[in-house]
Fold this sequence. Notes:
Helix content is about 65%, strand content about 5%. The protein is of the alpha/beta class. Strands 8-9-10-5-11-12 form a six-stranded mixed sheet, with helices on both faces. A hairpin with a 2-residue loop joins β6 and β7. α3 runs antiparallel to α6 and α14 packs antiparallel against α16. The chain folds into four domains: about 180 residues, no CATH class; about 350 residues, ABC transporter transmembrane region fold; about 220 residues, Rossmann fold; about 80 residues. InterPro entries: AAA+_ATPase (IPR003593), ABC1_TM_dom (IPR011527), ABC1_TM_sf (IPR036640), ABC_transporter-like_ATP-bd (IPR003439), ABC_transporter-like_CS (IPR017871), P-loop_NTPase (IPR027417), Type_1_exporter (IPR039421). One of its GO terms (molecular function) is ATP hydrolysis activity.
Amino acid sequence: MAESPDGLLEGLHYVYPAFIFTYFMVSTAVSVCTLETLRAAADPKDGRIPKRGILNASLFIAITYFSQLAAVVVRSSLERTWFGREDVIVGWLSCFMAFGIQTASLAKTEHPVWYPLYGSWLLAVLFEAVLAVKYSIYPHGELSGLPTFVYAAFSSFRAVLLIVLALTYFARRDGSTSPERTDEESQALLGEENNAGESRDCNNGTAPSDQALTRGYGSTQANGSAAKKRPVELPYERRMREGRERLEKRLQENGNWFTYIRKFTILWPYIWPVGNRKLQFRAILVGISLLVKNALNLLIPRQMGIIMDILGNTREGNPWIKVIIFAVLKFLASDSGIDYVRQRIYFPLEFYSRDALITAAYRHILNLSADFHDSQSTSDTILAIRGGETISSMVDKLAFSAIPRIVDLIIAIIYLSLKFGPYEGFITISTAICYLHVASILVGGMKEARRDQVASYYDKNNLLQTGVEGWHTVTAFNQTGYEDNRHSDAVRVHTAKTKVLYFKWFSVHALQSLVLLAGLLSGSFLAVARIQNGQATPGDFTMLLMYWGQLTGPLMFFSSLGKQVSNDLIHAERLLDMMYKKPTVTTKKGARPLHYTEGRVEFDNVCFSYDNRKNIIKDLTFTASGGQCIAFVGATGAGKSTILKLLSRLYDVTSGSIKVDGQDIREIDLASLRGRIGSVPQSPVLFNDTILNNIRYARITASDEEVYDACKSAWIHDKIMSFSDGYETRVGERGIKLSGGELQRVAIARAMLKDPDLIVLDEATSAVDTDTEHKIQQSLARLCDGRTTFVVAHRLSTIMNADRIIVIGDGTILESGDHETLIRSGGKYADLWAKQVFLKPQKNAKGSSESSTPSTLINDLEPETAEAELSKIHEAVRCAASGRNSASEGSQKGEGASTSGETKSEVDSSGESSSSSDESNREL
Length: 924
C-alpha cells in the first residue's frame, strides 16, 4: 500500500537530519581511521580552498533553519496557538544541530578533511530538492503556521547554496587559484615591527623571509616571554610524547587504523582464552549479565512510575505488589545482585587476560638477544611489560563498560521518544551531544593547568627526596635552613597550581551539570505539558526524572573515554613494538648439542660490528688449545670484552667463524653452548635475594654444602659467616649491600659452583685488594686447571702466567705471546707493563733532577718479582735502543759529526736511564 504524501513528508523531516548527521560522523571517523586527518596538513591543495567563505556559508545554512523555527514561534505567540507540528519542528532543530556541528568542526580544524563535508552537502541537496517538490505539491496551503511556498523557497535556496558550495570546493581544489588569505594568514608573521621591516627589506616587500616564517606565526620567539616561561619537559611527558610519535609513525607505516588494529591480533590469544571452554563460557555469561543490567536500568524507573500512578489513582492495582517488584528489581541492580554475580564470573577472565599478557611479554623479553637489552633502558622495558595491564584495562573499558553504556543511551532515546514523543528524543540526543562537545573543549583547555600542577608536584617531591638522601651533605655545609625554605616554597607553588587546576576542574563539572540540567528542565517541561494534555501520567514524570539521573553516568564516562583509550594505546604500543621484535641470536633448526672433547677454541677471520657500519672486531684469528689460558689486554674500547661476548654468542659474528672443538658455535644448540661456559663479569649483578640463592643460581640443584665449598674456594666463606644472617643475608638490589670485592668474590663462587668447561673472566679481580687478589688467583688457578680460560685484564700482574697474551688494538691483534716473549720484544705489551711497574720519579719542589728522586713501585708484585721484571724491561729497552742506533747509523752514511754527536747523546742518555733504574732496583 502506497504511503500518503503527508506520511512521506513526515518521514523526510526525521530521516533527513539523521542521515546527514550519521554520514558526517561516520565519514569523519573513517577519515581518522584512514589517517586522512594527518595527510590533510601536507596536501598542497588545502591552501586553495576558501575555508572562511565555506565556513560562513555553512553557518548561514544552519541559521535558515533557525529562522523558520523563529517564524513559527512568533506566529504562535501572536495568535496564542501552537502551530508547530512535531515532525517539522524536530526536523528543523535537528538540521540546525547537524549543520551547526559541521560548522563548529570546520572552524576548529586547521586542515580539515573535506569529503565528510562535501558528501553531506551533496546528500543535503537531494533531500532539499525532494522537500521543495513535496512542499510545492502539498495539498494544504499552510504547514506549521507558514505558507508552504515559504518552505519550498527555503529548501530551494538551501539546495542552490549547497550546490554552489560543492562546485566552489571542487573548482578551487582542482584549479590553480592562489590560496585565500584568511584573517590569520593576513596578519604579520612576525611579532615585532623591526622584524617585519627586516623581512620586507630582505624580500623586496613581497613575502616574508625564511627567518620570519620560522619565528613568526605558529612559533615562539626565542627571546620572548613565552619561551622563557615554558617549563622543561617532564619525564612522563617525554615518554608520552615519544609514545605518540611512535604511534603516529606506526600508523603511517600501516596506512590506516584498520591495518594498525590488526597488528594487535598477535595479542589475541592472550586477551581471549583460546582453547579454554570454561573461560569462554564465563565471557558469555558476563555478556548476558550486562544485558540484564541494561534491562534493569529501564525497568526500575518504569516500575517507580507505575507505583506513583497507582498511588495517584491513575492506574488500578495493588501498590504493595508493585513495591515488592520494585524492591526485587533494585536488589538485582545493586552491588549485591547482578553486579556481584558478574564480578564473580568475570574475575578469572580478567586475571587471565592481564596475567597472560604480562607473562607472555616477560617471556618474550627474556628470549630477546643482547642487542635489544643493551639498547633499551630498564624503565622502558618494564613500561612495555606493563602495557599488558593497559591492554587488559582497555579491553575491559570497551567491551564491558563502553558497549553497555551505549546500549543504555540507545534504549533511553528510543524509549523516551516512544513515551513522550519525538521532542523528548531530540532533547536527549542534543543534551548528550552538547555534554560531550563541552567536555572535549573544556577538558582540552585544562592541559596547561594540568601540566603546571604535575610539574610543581615533581619539583616538590624532587626537593624532598634529594634533601633526605643528601642529609649528610646538607648537614656538613650547614644548609638545613636553605633546604627547608626551598621545600616550603615548592609546597606553596604546588598548592597554588593545584588550586588553579581544581578551580578549572570544578568549573568544567559545573558547566557540564548545567548542560544536563538544561536537558532535564526541557524534558520536564515537555512531560508536564503532555500530562496536562492527558498524553502522559504523573508516574511517567517520575519515571523521566529517575531515568534521567541514570544517564549522567554514561555521559561522564564517554566524555573521558577518548583520552583514556588514546593513552592506553600509547602504552600498548610499547608492548606491541616489543612483541614484534625477534631475537637476532637463535638456535638454528636441527642444531645439535655441543660435543665437548678438549676445549679447543678457534677464531677464524672474525669480524663484528654492533651497528653494521663500523667494525669493532677486524679479521681476528687465533687458536686456543684445550686447557690453555688466553689473556686479552689493550686500551679501553679496543674490543676485548666484545670478544668474550662473541664467544658466549651474545652476538653473532658479522663474518668469519668461532669454533669449539671444530664445531661452529652458530650450528650448536645455544643452551648447550652457554651451559658449558662460566663467566665472571666486570660488574656482577646479583638479585635482591639471599647470598645462598644468588650463588646457587648458577646451578639450581646444588646442595648447600656445594655452595659452601664454592665460597671457600673463592675466599668468601668466612666473610659471609661474619654477617649477622650468614648465607641468608639479603644483598639488596644489584648486590648493593656488598662491597666491590665481596661482590666479585660472590660472582667467582657462582662461576665455580657451575663447574663449567670454558671459563670467561672479564676483570674478575679488578675490585679486590692485593691480599684478596692473591687468594682469588689461587682459587682461579684451581678452577681453570684443565679448562680453556679467557681472561680480560688491565692489571697485567694477574695474567703473567697466562699461556698466551694477546694485545688488542682497534679490534685487531697487535702482538701475541707469553709474558717473557712480549717483554723481550719491547712492544706495546712491554710499554704497558713498564707503565704499571714503574712510578715516574717524583719531582721535588726545588726542581731537583729525576735521577736524585727516589722511584717507587705502584704495582702489587712481590719485591723480588718486581726487581726481576724491572731488569727484564731494562734489558729489553737497551736492546731495542741498540737496534735503533745501528739502523740509524746504517741509513745515515755521510752525515758526519752531527750524527755521531746525536748517537753519543743517545748512549749517554741510555746510560743515565740505566743507572737510575739500577738505583731504583737497589731501593726495592
